[in-house]
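User: Predict the full complex structure for these chains.
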Amino acid sequence: MNIVQGKGVSQGVAHGVIYFYHRPESQVEARHNCDPAEEQVRLNQARETAAQALLDMAEAARAQAGDSAAELFETHAMFLEDEDYTGAMDELVAQGCNAEYAAQQAGEQFAAMLAEMDDDYMRARAADVKDVTGRVLNLLLGVVEGGIDSDEPVILAADDLAPSETIQLDKSKILAIATQGGSGNSHTAILARTMGIPAVCGLGEAFNESYHGKEAYIVGETGQVIFDPDPETLQSLETRQAQQTERQELLRSMVGQEDVTLDGKKIKLYCNIGSPEDVSAVLANDGQGVGLFRSEFLYLAASDYPDEEAQFQAYKKAAVDMKGKRVIVRTLDIGADKQVDYFDLNKEENPAMGLRAIRICLNRPEVFRTQLRALYRASAFGKIAIMFPMIASVWEVKECRRACQKVMDELSAEGIPFREDTELGIMIETPAAVFMAPELAKLVDFFSVGTNDLTQYTLACDRQCNDLGKFFDPHHPAVLRALKMAADAAHEAGIWIGICGELGADTALLPTFLAMGIDELSVSPTAVLPLRAAIRKSIAGTCDLELLKG
Amino acid sequence: MKSFTYTITDPVGIHARPAGLLVKAAKAFAGAEITVSKGDKSAKATQLMKLMGLGVKGGDQITVSVNGGDEEAAAAAMEDFFKNNL
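Assistant: Here is the predicted structure of the two-chain assembly.
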C-alpha cells in the first residue's frame, strides 16, 4: 500500500485510473522588430475572442454550478478590459514586440504583483491572471485547448488546474481531481465542491507523472491518494463508496420531489439557518423555505448593538435569495447559553430561567424596535415571517403585536414599503405556552416548537448539564404529549404548527409527528433530502400515537 | 469633490468577484472619476487589478472620492454598492 497525503478539499471517495493532464505547451518567442499596427490588430482580436469565450464559459458555469461560479468567469473577462493590464501589453507592442511576448510579459507582471501580496486569497488570484493570459496566448499561437483523451472516466491529475480548465473539461469523464498544488481556497476546489466531485490538492512532488495510468483511490475526507490498498483498507474504502453511491442516488432522486406522504398528507419541509449565507445550502438541498433563521448571529458577531441598516440588509438578502419562499426570522434569542457582553446583563444563577429572549426585548423596547423595523423593511422584498421566542403568557404576545403595529405605523408615516400581512408566530418552548396554546393560537399565524428548550423545561433538565444522561430524554412521553396539546390547539384555531428543534429531523419520530398532524418540519439543510425520502415512504393514516403512552 | 469613508464588513475584503462588480458599477458613471484609497495606496474604481492590488480586507477603512460628472449621484451609488456588497 502506498499513500500520498494531501489536503482534502471536496468530499467523497472515488476509484479509478490516474490521468495526468497535459496542458498545451505555449512556447513564446520574443521578437522586437515587429510591425506595431499588425501586432496590435492580432492582440485585439485575441483579447476579444478570449473575452467572448470567457463569457460563454460563464453561461456554461451558471448552468453547471450556479451564479457564483459564473461570476468568476465574468471577472476573468473583465481582466481583459482592465486598462492597466491591456495597456501594459499595448505598450510593448508599440515598442515593436510581438503580440505573444507582450501578452506573456503583462501577464507575468500582474500575476507577480498579486503573488507578492500578504494575503493567501490574493496570492491564489495570481493563478487567475495566468489563466487569462494563457487563454490569450493560446489564441495567438493557434493552440487548441486539450481535453481528456480517454474513453473511460478517470481521476484527473495535474500540477494545478485553472478554473477555466476545470469548467471546460468533460465532467462525465472525471471521477475525482488530484493536484500537486492548490488550496481549499482555489476556485478549482470550490467548483469541485459545487459539482460534487471528490478533490485532493496540495499533494506536492510526491504525486508525479510516474503515476499516470495507475489505479488509485481518492479520499476527499482525509486528503489521501491510495495506491494498492491492503485488504483491510480496501474493504473500508469499498464500503464507504457503496454507502456514498447509495446515499447520493437516493438523495438525487429526491430533489424536486414534493414533500407528501403516500396517502397525500403534505408537509412543509423547511431549513434552520444561522446567517444569510446559509441560504445557498437551503437551495442546494431543495429546502422549501426557512423555518428558523436565528437572528443571534447579528448580535453575537458584533461588538455593539447592530444597527437597523445592517440587520435590514441581512434579512433582505435572505428574503431575496429565497425567491419568495417563506423565511421565518426568530427575533433576538440571547441570554441563557448565548451571552453578549454589550447587553450588559446581570450574571444569573440559572440563566435558562432568567432574563432571555423575548423577555429582554420586552424590557428593552429600543432594541426590539430596531429589529422589528429591519424585519418589516425586509418584508417588502420577499416572504418574511416573524417569530417570537420563549413565550409563556398571552400578554407577552399582545405586547409583541403592539410593538409590530407601532413599527408598521412608523414605516407608513415615513413612506417606507413593507408587507402589512407579514405573518407573526411564536415558539412553543415553555410548558406555560403549551397550557395556554388555545388562547395563544388565536393571536398568531403559526406555532413552531423548539423541542430542545421544551424538553429542558418540561423535564426540568438543564440542557447545559452533561451529567443528566438518560434523564434528558427528548422522546419522553411528556414532551410528546406537550407537542400534541400544542398541535391540537393550533388546528382547533385553524393555524399551522411546525417543529424547528433538533427533534424535527429525527426520523424515528416522524410517524408520531404525522399522527399529530404536524404541518411543518424545519431541519438543517443537509437533513432535508433524507427526511423527504422518509416522508414519501410514510402513510400518515396508519401512524399512531403509541409513543405518547407512559 | 464628494467623498466618504467606509469600513469593509466582508471578511475577505475586495476580492475578485466584488472588485469586478465594483468596476461595473463605477463604469456606469462615465463622467466621474471615482477613486478608492486605503492608507497611501489608491486605485480608480475602474481599475480591476489595481483594486485587487490594494489588498483591502475585512475591517479595513477605505475612502472613496468622486471627481467630476454627477458627483452627488455617483457618490450615493458607490455608498450603496459598498453597503450591499462589501
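Chain B is about 40% helix and 25% strand.
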